[in-house]
Amino acid sequence: MNWKNKNWLLIVFLLTLIGCNNSNTPTDTPTTGEITISVDETIEPLIDSEINTFNKIYRYAKVKVNYKSEAEAFNDLINGKTRLIIVSRKLNKDEHKVFAEWEIVPKVTKIAYDAVALIGSKDLKDSTLTINDIKMLLTGKATASFKNTRMVFDNSSSSTVFFLKQKTGITDLSKQCFAFNSNKAVIDYLSKNNNSIGVIGVNWISDADDSTHLSFLKSVKVLEIANNEYSDYYKPYQAYIALKAYPLWREIYIISKEAYTGLGTGFTAFIASDRGLRIILKFGLVPATMPVRLVELKKNEDLNIKQE
Questions:
Q1: Percent of the chain clearing pLDDT 70 (strictly above)
Q2: 19 Cβ partners below 8 Å, 6+ apart?
């Protein structure tokens, strides 16, 4: 083989090597590029607002989203269909084992305290439930007040199903429990049918700027929940979620397997920023990191208060 042919083969080899290296080079930064994430559909209104705001601020960044059941979101993460998900639970033992096999340390960021809201049709005579009452409804053994009441979920694999099963300690749901394909379908069903209770994420009924949810709230009841019959009953208001007085509060996490500082990292940082936290507050949730306001209280004599 002559020198010209050898040089040509060397050039081809180098170009191939460079091409292989470039294919592994990240094409995004914290504020540029594209990423597609998978998100629990129970928090769709909140994350839609976060994404729209982020994309408007950073013109060269594009966060795309697939809303699906929480189980499907975790499957996307494990099967390599996405590198970032937003869900209501942490990784379980089996999922941690997969990360260990990848030799990747997952980035888990708690962003908010959320709540599962129970909404009832207008005809319901009772608008208060204990955790045990919920258990009886889910197992088909409801008391007279809720006899034959249908429980409606957004998805059979929904995080709300998983959450209520854990909260009540049950494994199977009765035939009185139904699942649709979205939170919107649950809302529509409740507004048109009697003797029914829907289970949705609280952000679906908490955006005061959304006129559609305000009109919807006039056609249903937001139910009050207590830990037991001797406890106080609470609606899923922001203050009660913050105090963890509302029994059905939960946490929201961003879980990422991004092994570099890319767009997923940038989007996570945005949600944790002041602007991102304000969006969380707007949708009735409580940011996981709240600014602390210190107030100094002076002694009575400093305030010239006269004691009687």
A1: 82
A2: none
From the number of C-beta atoms within 10 Å of its C-beta (0-12, 13-18, 19+), residue 78 rates as middle
Residues of the chain with CATH 3.40.190.10: 36-113+254-287, 114-250
Over its C-alpha atoms, the chain yields an Rg (Å, rounded) of 25
- Distance between CA atoms of 233 and 155, rounded to whole angstroms? 27
Compare 215 and 184 and report the one with higher pLDDT.
184
Homologous superfamily of 114-250: Periplasmic binding protein-like II (3.40.190.10)
Query: Quick one: pLDDT at residue 298?
Result: 53
Residue from 86, 89, 90 nearest 66 by CA:
86
What pLDDT score does 241 carry? 95
Residue among 187, 207, 205 nearest 197 (CA):
187
Residue 190's identity, in one-letter code, is L
**What would the two tokens of residue 120 be?**
């009832």
Do β-strands 84-87 and 33-40 pair in parallel, antiparallel, or remain unpaired? parallel
pLDDT above 90 covers a percentage of the chain that reads 69
* H or E segment to which residue 67 belongs: strand 61-68
Model confidence at 218: pLDDT above 90: no
Weakest-pLDDT range from 20-29, 100-109, 222-231, 238-247: 20-29
| Residue 291 backbone zone (phi > 0: left; psi -120 to 50: alpha; other: beta) | beta
**Please, is 250 exposed, middle or buried when counting C-beta atoms within 10 Å of its C-beta (0-12, 13-18, 19+)?**
buried
CA distances from 123 to 165, 197, 221 (A): 26, 11, 9
Alpha-carbon gap, residue 274 to 35, rounded angstroms: 22
Q: Predicted confidence band at 301 (pLDDT cuts at 50, 70, 90)?
A: very low
**Whole-Å CA distances, 249 to 114, 164, 186, 204:** 6, 11, 20, 15
Q: Tell me the CATH class for 36-113+254-287.
A: alpha beta
